[in-house]
Design a protein that fits this description.
- Helix 1 (17-26) packs across helix 2 and helix 2 crosses helix 5 (90-108).
- The chain has six helices and three strands.
- The protein is globular and about 55 Å long.
- 58% of the residues lie in helices and 11% in strands.
- A three-stranded antiparallel β-sheet has the order 1-3-2.
- With 125 residues, the chain is mostly helical.
Length: 125
Amino acid sequence: MTSQPALEANVFARACASRQVLQNATGRWGVLALAALGEGPHRFGELRRHVDGVSERMLAQTLQQLERDGLVSRRAENTIPPRVEYSLTPLGSRVAEHLLGLIGVLEANIAEITAAQQDYDSTHE
C-alpha cells in the first residue's frame, strides 16, 4: 500500500479544504459550540440552552459539520430515550483553546470596543 503525499494547506487558496474547516469552526455557531464544549461534554439539550439563540436545526447542523471535521465527538447510548453526548476531540480542544483566548480578549475589552463602535457610528451617520 502506497502512502499519500502530505497535502499542504493554504487557507487563502480558494480550493483548500482548510478554508471550509475554518468557516465551520469560526462561524457564528461553530465558535460558540466549540467554546461551550471547551468547558466539558454536554448533551444536546444542555448545549442548546447554553448557546442562547441557536435553533435546534442550526445546532444539529453545526455539530455535524464539526464532527465531520474531527473537532467534535458524538457518543450515543442505546437507551430509551437515546442519550447523546458531545465532547471535543483532542484537535477540537486545541482549536477551542485558541477560540476561548480570543473570546477572553474580546470580553475583557468590551468597553473599549463599545466606545470605538460609538465613535464610528457618530462619524458615519
